[in-house]
Amino acid sequence: MVCRGSSTDDNIEWLVWFGLIAGDSSSDADVSSVMGFSGFGKKARTFDLEAMFEQTRRTAIERSQRVLGHYSIISPLVSQFEEFLKKIPDTHEITLQHGSKSVSALALDPSGARLVTGGYDYDVKFWDFAGMDAALHAFRSLQPCECHQIRSLQYSVTGDVILVVAGNSQAKVLDRDGFQVLECIKGDQYIVDMANTKGHTAMLNDGCWHPKIKEEFLTCSNDGTVRTWDLNSEKKHKSVFKPRSQQGKRVIPTCCTYSRDGKLIAAGCQDGTIQIWDRNLSVHTKFHCRQAHAAGSDTTCLTFSYDGVTLASRGGQTRRCFLSVLGLHVLHRHAKLAKSALLFNMTDCCFSPDDKLLLTGTSVKKDEGNGKLLFFERESLQKVYEIEVADAGVVRCLWHPKLNQIMVGTGNGLAKVYYDPVKSQRGAMLCVVKSKRKEKHAETLTQDYIITPHALPMFREARQRSTRKQLEKDRLDPVRSHKPEPPVSGPGRGGRVAAHGGTLSSFIVKNIALDKTDDSNPREAILRHAKEAAENPYWVAPAYKQTQPEPLFAEEEEEEVDEDQPEWKKRKI
């Protein structure tokens, strides 16, 4: 079998050749005419090789043209998808353990140095990529809103303060270290017109900062209002926007956002509508889309594209989730995400840094699959890629434009960071290269150093240069580095009392250093001091100086043992 042409043509000719031998639809007569003989008799076979190769060549050319024509239609789409896949940084990942409950809020400062996570466990944790090591521990954890779940977190445009939106009616502003800067005032819940109250009267749903003005932020609540606030004025809101249904009734906004230039305010409502106002005109809406999502469903997220001409929303019914793209005049595309229940009413979506992709997460019930991060092409909303994140739902997602890293919050208390060492910058790559710090165990306890700058030179202590040098110096000191004596077992000795000695007598014995093991002769112990008493009489000798100048001591006599005495009368030694 001989095939001619390039490697691609060789493959095509091989397939055609195989189809010809198998006999696609040709009869014996056609085969005989092609093969160059007239019949199947006993005559000797003669082959026309030139005719055989010519027929094979023509068939290969025809089939090659049909295949190449088919690939010419598909190849632009394939190349476009490959271009999208090259932009997604998902080759590496790190996992941050926030807690045991869902991570319901994520925020990254504009520089990408610090990450803030909030969850259903009421905690807000601060992560510093430059300060962390491979252990990946948060450097601060606090509960700013006590027993209320955290619903939204966002850094300001300058990155110096953080907006905290929880399940209560008062939003808070914290600085970079977690200390409170502002707490919004609570409104009067007995006033019917919400525009006459100073603040929200029901649970908050969402909030965000103004993209241009660093002192202004936006919140929406179950009281049916969207309010703007000024960081310098905590006594009252700045302006009020009241969404209305088609019948003019009050509807609850579930999410809100600013446009990229800060001139528009958008809110997604529970009746499935998306209402957009001019920031300076709070009475009538500028754009109103009444069929963005199904009525009665929660619109969980609104986000503007970086060019400011496209608004993406995420919402769903009881069993289906949809992703919508809204131009500033008409809603033109939907994308069905999954046939799964909408478990989290704060699942968001966001655009890629180049504005060509749109990503969001899916929610799953326990033990019913894995939560996925889905990537869609912006214009056609066709899914181009997906990442299986964890065995729980994907609640939050964030694609930082400077770091080119994707942050994901899951329903099982994890915060994952996806990055590519080639495409990404800083962020998670700063902490994964650091080894875990070893715990330092001090051998001895150093004394506290008291600084007395105005003390006299004779009372001034020497200044400690470093803890390490002081430890080495104390290690050489035999007194400081003396090994502690083990506890006494059994009866006390040498002035030390056993562990059970807690009485007054035990204390006295310990202080006078009585040695109970001294079994010497008491007579010899007294006569040991006879020479000193004779040379320096002080107590006994002066008293007997006249009556008995010479002391008389009893002589030792051997006691006679009476052998006739019974055994029980004999003295026991």
The geometry reads as elongated
Mean pLDDT: 78
Per CATH, what is the topology of the domain at 99-433? Answer: Methylamine Dehydrogenase, Chain H
Strand order of the largest sheet: 1-28-27-26
Low-confidence parts lasting 5 or more residues at pLDDT below 50? Answer: 1-41, 318-322, 328-332
According to CATH, the homologous superfamily of the domain at 99-433 is YVTN repeat-like/Quinoprotein amine dehydrogenase
Whole-number radius of gyration? 45 Å
Q: Indicate the CATH architecture of the domain at 99-433.
A: 7 Propeller
What does this structure look like?
The chain has 573 residues and is of the alpha+beta class. It has a domain of 335 residues: Methylamine Dehydrogenase, Chain H (7 Propeller). The N terminus is likely disordered. The protein has a four-stranded antiparallel beta sheet with strand order 1-28-27-26, with no helix packed on it.
